[in-house]
Amino acid sequence: MPTITIYKDDFQSLLHQTPSANRTVAIEELEAWLMLAKGELKGYNHETGELRIELQDSNRPDLWCCEGIARQVRIKQQGQLTPYPFFSEASQSQMQIIVKPGIEQVRPYVAACAARGYRVTTEGLAQLIQTQEKLAEIFGHKRKTVSIGIYQLPKIKFPVTYALVKPDEARFTPLGMETVMTLSEILMVHPKGLEYGAILAGTGRLPILRDAANQPLSFPPIINSREIGEVQVGDDQLFVEVTGTDLPMVVLTLNIFASNLADRGATIEPIEVQYPRSTSLGKRVTTPLDLGKSKTIQIQKVEQALGQELGVHTVARALETYGYEVSAGKGSVKAKLPPYRQDLMHMMDVVEDVAMSLGYAEFTPVMPAQFTVGGLSDIEHMSDRARELMVGLGFQEIISNILGSPDSYSGRMRLEATEWGRMVEVDNVMSLSFSCLRQWILPSLLRVEAASSRAFYPHRLFEAGDVAIPDAAKELGSRTETILGAVIAHAAAHFSEIHSCLDVLCYYLGKEYSLETVQHPSFLEGRAGRIIVAGRPVGVIGELHPEVLERWQIAVPVVAFDLNLSQLLS
Amino acid sequence: MDISSAVIDSLHPLETKVLTTLGANPPEAVLNSEQLAAAAELEPSQLSMAVEWLLAKGLVTIQAETVTPVASLTKTGEEYHQSMSPIERVLAAARDAAGTGKRLTIPDLQSHDGLDPSDVSKAVGRLKKEGVLLIVQGGCIETTGRSSPTVEALKGLLRQLHESPRELKAFPEGDRRVIEDYAVKRGNAKEPFRIDERVTRAFMLSPSGANAAEQLLRQGVAEEVSQLSPDMLKDGSWRHKRFRKYTISLRAPRVGTGKKHPYREFLDTVKAKLVSMGFQEMRGSLVETEFWNMDALFMPQFHPARDIHDVYFVKDPTHASAMDESVLSHVAQVHQHGAETGSTGWGYSFDVQRAKRLVLRSQGTAVSARTLAAAPSIPGKYFSIARCFRYDQVDATHATDFFQVEGIVLGEDINFRTLLGLLNLFAREVAQAKEVKFSPAYFPFTEPSVELHVRHPRLGWMELGGAGLFRPEVTLPLGVTVPVIAWGLGLDRMAMVALGIHDIRELFTDNLELIRTTRGLF
Predict the structure, then answer these.
(1) What is the block-wise mean pLDDT of chain A (570 residues), using blocks of 10 residues?
(2) Are residues A517 and A384 part of one domain?
């Protein structure tokens, strides 16, 4: 989840809002406060005051900015959230956005507001841009669901229209460019067009925001106009718009921006969006808009989940000091999220907020008291016994990756296009070295042998581990089984040497086995056997084919077995 | 005064042999190397080793050094012995010519097979001096019929010295002169004989050596041996033997060992701890459906971590051939609108086909989800040490293929405080930590969620794991109505420190020497 950069001075001034109350915050104190926001301090530069903070909660985009973290802490300190007036203002908006028919097929929703009276500072501008990027990128799925534009308000003549145009019908100078371009040119040439153009793929006409003078504001979700959409330090009248495909998410994103700008001292003026036909929020939607609904929370359920008696008052206070709007009842509270949040899906979400608001340290750990019997799975138990025996036989245990290359698991083993060479392969390959799951263990051991010609001989290696064997009869198309592989490598390694080890192993595992001659391409003909237990094949044993050794660049003879413990167990 | 028994006890059998051999002679007897070797029945190499050790210990002194010239054959000499010496060839050629009446000149001889010009002139000169040959008018060579003492002597000497080298003084005066005439000298390597100077040393016991020999002879009955044998045990003869004492401070020779892998050993101790705390092991499949890997865990299908860049997809088959349709549709409804769970759900349209997409398991929680759906014990505790795969660039801190240690705890008494209690237990049992800190955390499938920080006895404050109460959206559609803790432990850092490695890739190293020599300090 996002890691953001904020400045300590900026954070402090947002925390106290009034300069007179300003005081320096110790870094340890700040770290403790970050717990309220599920934030973790990743770095601090004493000289610049730069803080790097990772925010964990992917459902709390309001916390992915300096303003949001400061707000969460401030509410705790002040005892409640000072309500934002613009969410409840009944006054008619002076500014409108008119949505034209057709846009619902591409990017249906827009929300916007104006902000006056906050003069943009250097830090403020950096935060504005960072918040815009993090919200559009992560919350907005790389601008697909939500994207944001910020403009110089005085340059815009209302009403603004949101409509579809033909790709060459509109033109403007985009941010980062010197010349006027058509929308199709932007898609083909502009870096943002190349990066995000796929979102609009397959749509004949493209979305555009234009003002009453027909000046383009933006080509959402790609790029803003340079003339209107380039906010600078010193600007004190802003216009913010959010477009997207999910109305609640679009409104929430705007609510976050409005709250952030209000926290910095701006007066927020709502904007009315007029849709051609009714949306889930009606035909005329004035934003910012509080979409929160109250939820009745049974105190008993909260106490049960937290394992502690708290009472109505404590729960109500905890929620209030975490930003909720609360009214206490008998044995329950009615709680409503602040307008910049939308993450209340279940009562348990409220429970966590109660615990965070009170502080996890307020809860005394209690041991789960109910009795349970521990134990290993049958296969793990067998695998552990086999491992003990292999160690007793003088073998060194190995652990390897399961994800590897077809060359190791099949090619070098001379198994291409054979029944033994089938593997579970990866579709989205990043590197051939990690593109399939092993279907047996011997290649994992040969990997070590090939790298260890200088290691003191003899080499006796084993690994007991999982493999994936393709099997069309299974729902998942493969079986995960545990295999024990063993190799012996030295100048005079002989079949009978590994055979003796298999013999001992099977004896102590209590399995009667026999060997049947098999033609297996990895082994020398006439020196390879199928291991049969209870009439079923459970593995192979033999002397590795010189060509296999050559392909692995192994310079000593190697004898080996590969024994399927899962098959042995069943 | 007796020499210390420590010196006597540490004597090598060869040293004892030499000391007792010298000691068996009258006091102050002097024996040279050959005599000593013969008397002690030792090979010259054994003798010289033993004598060097005794000299170093001051038990034997060198009484005298004599230099003896010894004659032997050179390679050329061996050739002459096999065929003929040049002088013999010259004489034979001259006699041959006399018999057939042919003219023979020096140039004729020089072109003769196997003879080179310098050999010819030396041979002709010697034979002329002995009066065996004459040079007549026109440079013709004639024989006088006399025999050549040199030729005769050479034949005999080549034969004798072919058998073995001999001291020069063992030869009569005449032979000695021939050897000297035909010996390799500076600037003339092509001669049949070589005269070497053999140094013979004569030894006698030092006073302490005499003392040691006396003691050895006194205790003499007991034969010293180095190895106890089955025969000695069988016939009881070990009672009459003395066992040589070893220098036990020497470095031990290397031996091949069978050993568990240090990282596996670490995981084994974790496994044993979990079993001891009442956890039952769960196993799962390396290949999973997106359903069990993510959907069942209430991760919405639009969740950023479900992107193509985080999970490995299976190429063939791409989708599961069948699934439990009732669980599938139940989970789908919960994602869409929460169903009976009391949740609003994510409010999107769930793609059933996507749920069947096959992936490589990316989190051990998939195994827990399967357990929840398979009528687990209540109360119940489960764990798995599951191999998981992430679509990450491999580097020192990211492996594409790694173990996750995690599990679940189900029970009527499960709540936030018992969750903290369980984490306390892990901190104490797994990390031997006494101090813990809990902080709020986020996992898509738990609420509330906790991160566990512990003060490890050696590593200081570190994050040990994450946990939380499974959301009802996870448990209810899988048929579980009691609260469930989901927990996971991040143990790789602890393992790496215990194994002394700094790169996560080394956990699966192919370096056999490293694996063999790594000790886990758990």
Answers:
(1) 92 76 77 94 92 93 96 93 82 86 95 96 94 94 95 96 94 93 94 94 92 95 93 95 96 97 95 94 93 94 96 96 95 96 95 97 93 97 98 97 97 96 95 96 98 94 98 97 98 96 97 96 97 97 98 97 96
(2) yes
A383 and A281, same domain (yes or no): no
Contact yes or no for A377 and B400 at CB 8 A = no
In this structure, are residues B73 and B154 in contact, taking their beta carbons and an 8 Å threshold? no
Say how far apart CA A481 and CA A464 lie, in whole Å.
10
Cβ neighbours of A305 in B, within 8 Å: 415-416, 448, 469, 483
Domain presence at residue A254: yes
* Residue B117 shares a structural domain with residue B178: yes
Give yes or no for A368 touching B (CB within 8 A).
yes
Count how many domains chain B has: 3
Can you spell out the DSSP letters for B267-278?
A: HHHHHHHHHHTT
Q: Please tell me which of the candidates A376, A401, A480 has its beta carbon nearest to residue B285.
A: A480
Helix axes A8-16, A66-78, angle to 10 degrees: 40
SS3 B374: coil
Nearest Cα to A388, choosing from A459, A462, A449? Answer: A462
What is the helix, strand, coil percentage profile of chain B, to 5? 45, 25, 35
Burial of residue B94 (number of CB atoms within 10 Å: 0-12, 13-18, 19+): buried
Report the CATH number at residue A339.
3.30.56.10
Cβ burial B468-498 (10 Å sphere, 16+ → b, else e)? bbbbbbbbbbbebeebbbbbbbbbbebbbeb
Interface ipTM > 0.85: yes
Q: What amino acid occupies position A128?
A: L
**What CATH number does residue B428 fall under?**
3.30.930.10
Domain total for chain A?
A: 4
Given an 8 Å threshold on Cβ–Cβ distance, is B321 in contact with A477? yes
Distances (CA, A) of A250 to A106, A209, A288, A423: 15, 16, 10, 46
d(CA A549, CA B277): 46
